[in-house]
TrEMBL record:
Alphabetical UniProt keywords: Cell membrane, Membrane, Transmembrane, Transmembrane helix, Transport
Domain ABC transmembrane type-1, chain residue ranges per copy: 13-205
Residue ranges crossing the lipid bilayer per the database entry: 20-43, 55-75, 87-105, 146-168, 188-207
Protein name per its UniProtKB record: D-methionine transport system permease protein
Subcellular location per the Swiss-Prot or TrEMBL entry: Cell membrane
One of the Pfam families matching this protein, by short name: BPD_transp_1
GO biological process: D-methionine transmembrane transport
Length: 217
């Protein structure tokens, strides 16, 4: 590849990091509260709200069942309302966040459900309030699983961000389509694939190291 193409590859990489990074933070901030509510409001949980729990679970399942490319197109009006445009990095953040949040919420929910009931009962016997139990029992005990699930979520978001390039979202996917596929330039395609693989490996390695550290505490 030429020097100009390497520069474009670098900028595409930064765009992908930006859209995935911001979307991942949104998914993390929204997914954990959703997961906590799904666990607390489940039958036999600490909060008696079965109707709201079932409604929220149905909404989450609906978003999870929708393919990302379909969700990307369906959310174009909302994306335009929030960002003022339907193309570019920041426009991609909206569908990426909305797609990743339910996915991560379900993974976090599984980790929270695996916390030993005896720990929760012991905390209740000690007179702990619900938010104490969530903050000092549920989340710390489920943290390795949550971090592992968040790693999986980020990896899937990297793939989704490349798919978003098909509709002008920018980043590595846009470069692969515009400068690789449409111009029949195999070198560009290979370069994008190498960068994507390296990103996924780096994220997975960091996530695995974090999980091992948390489990060793």
């Amino acid at each position: 590849m030429s020097a100009m193409m390497y520069e474009r590859l670098w900028h595409a990489f930064l765009d992908t990091v930006a859209m995935v990074g911001v979307s991942a933070l949104v998914a993390l901030a929204a997914g954990i509260p959703l997961a906590v509510f799904l666990v607390l409001a489940a039958p036999g949980g600490l909060v008696h709200a079965p109707s709201m729990q079932r409604l929220l679970a149905a909404v989450i399942n609906g978003f999870r069942a929708t393919p990302f490319i379909v969700l990307l197109v369906a959310l174009l009006p909302l994306t335009r309302l929030l960002t003022g445009t339907t193309i570019g990095v920041w426009a991609a953040v909206v569908p990426l966040s909305i797609s990743a949040t339910p996915f991560f919420a379900r993974i976090a929910e599984v980790s929270l459900r695996e916390v030993d009931d005896g720990l929760i009962e012991a905390a209740q016997a000690m007179g702990c309030r619900r938010w104490h139990i969530v903050w000092h029992v549920l989340l710390p005990e489920a943290l390795p699983g949550i971090v592992g699930g968040f790693t999986i979520t980020v990896v899937s978001m990297i793939g989704a961000s490349a798919m978003a390039g098909a509709v002008g979202a920018g980043g590595l996917g846009d470069m692969a389509i515009r400068y690789g596929y449409q111009r029949f330039d195999t070198t560009v395609m290979v370069g994008v694939i190498v960068v994507l693989v390296a990103m996924v490996c780096a994220v997975q390695l960091a996530g695995d190291m974090a999980v091992r550290h948390l489990r060793a505490r």
